[in-house]
Design goal:
The chain has four helices and eleven strands; from the N terminus they run αββββαββββαβββα. The chain is α+β, with helices and mostly antiparallel strands and about 210 residues long. The protein has a domain of about 140 residues: Nucleoside Triphosphate Pyrophosphohydrolase, CATH 3.90.79.10. It is globular and about 50 Å long. Belongs to the Nudix hydrolase family.
Amino acid sequence: MTDASPDPFGDLAAFRAVAADRLASFAHTTVPDAAAPRRAGVVLCAVEHGGVPSVILIRRAYQGRNAGQWGLPGGRQEDGETPEQAALRELGEEIGLVAAPGDVLGRLDDFPAMSGFAITPVVVVLDDPGPLVPSPDEVHSVHYTSLRTLADDDTPAWVPQPGGGHMLQMRLGPDWRVHAPTGAMLWQFREVVLLGRDARVADFVQPDWTRH
């Protein structure tokens, strides 16, 4: 007998079910407030693009903080907000997509960035996201990477560093290299949500230029 279950890499509803189950059993870590005076929320937003489930990434505008860097939609947490609320608000402000709290499937580990922010990644699935409306002040371009690409064995690369250790590169396409913090959050999403493994990322090496 063959397994007729939908492929979560090829079917958004199947991915939602698998992701919700895995995130429900994942004990995420939280950076204490005393260790993170600044906090931010970002969204790993899964949508259907070109007929396949994909995650949205952005290239930040070539001005201000993180100029030109690869990132996930998101930003600073304001007074009175939860990380989830900040992430969803920023998703709308940066690329014009509206997500409700019920669209959030769960969260991954807070990532302690060298910029001084503790970044909380939340996982969202949108069946009908509507048109993208990128903010030109914040977003240079919007890109998609398929779940299958994220799960591919050749996507993560570990680059030796002169002083020892290795730096992660998520190689998502030609000339498309994503480092920590964003690369670390994509890698944990891949390991925990897509592949069902336990994985932690707080100690991942970050390039010096991510301090700004």
